[in-house]
Design brief:
globular, Rossmann fold, 248 residues, alpha/beta, 7-stranded parallel beta sheet, 7 strands
Length: 248
């Protein structure tokens, strides 16, 4: 994949899927903005990418903060003129029965998993339109496709991100902007590490490959949607779940 002379933003890239994606896009030639609320870890990822001979810089971003999003967009666009590839990875969740959820918990889930990607996309998409093209990849979850026990509102937020992807894909097509969605299944990330061991074992047993996904495997799907190989693909949802959710 040749992403030379392309600029990419990857949110949530201080760890997990975001980090793997930032490293992979940079290795394929893109200038990557490592965007994360964790400034120390995000800066370390950018340094790691640059040490490998690739192009990256860290910019702080809190996807729940409107002012932070505006500031980030201004800095990124001032630096490079436009963003060619936007990958909305940042997400958060916690397993808990719906009846124990608080409204504050719901608000946080929606702010990070749905409204964050919507707001950041709105801040960066017009220059893509003006430039005549771009790629947007939203990282949802298989929870948004089929639901997930103990993650009811998280599932709702991720399902909303899938619907947002499809709606924006229809609007963006006339501007040559592709909008697609990757839905990871259970993946070996810091969020998964917080899952109780008994639940972890049950999840692994349910996956046909009998293992968790690797962040790098999800990043490969994101790379496909970020490059020229997907120029005639838009509004699509790709599950990367080891066969856990074999539904349409």
């Amino acid at each position: 994949m040749n992403l030379e002379n392309k600029t990419a933003v990857v949110t949530g890239s201080a760890s997990g899927i975001g980090k793997a994606t930032a490293k992979l896009l940079a290795a394929n030639g893109a200038h990557v903005f490592v965007a994360d609320i964790n400034e120390q870890a995000g800066a370390a990822v950018a340094s790691e990418i640059k040490a490998a001979g690739h192009k990256a810089e860290f910019l702080a971003l809190d996807v729940t903060d409107v002012a932070s999003i505006a500031r980030f967009a201004e800095q990124a666009l001032k630096s490079t003129g436009r963003v060619d590839i936007l990958v909305n990875v940042a997400g958060w969740g916690r397993t808990e029965p719906f009846v124990k959820n608080t409204p504050e918990f719901w608000d946080k889930l929606m702010a990070i998993n749905l409204m964050g990607p919507i707001r950041l996309t709105r801040a960066l998409i017009q220059p893509m339109y003006d430039a005549g093209g771009g790629k947007i990849v939203n990282v949802s979850s298989d929870a948004g496709r089929v639901g997930s026990l103990g993650e009811t509102v998280y599932s709702a937020a991720k399902g909303g991100l899938i619907a947002f992807t499809k709606g924006l894909a229809r609007e963006g097509a006339r501007f040559n902007v592709n909008v697609n969605c990757v839905c990871p299944g259970p993946t070996d990330t810091p969020l998964m590490a917080a899952v109780p061991e008994k639940v972890h074992e049950a999840i692994v047993k349910a996956i046909p490959f009998r293992r968790l996904g690797k962040p790098e495997e999800v990043a490969e799907a994101i790379l496909f949607f970020s490059g020229s190989g997907s120029n005639f693909v838009t509004g699509q949802v790709l599950s990367v779940s080891g066969g856990l959710t074999m539904v349409g």
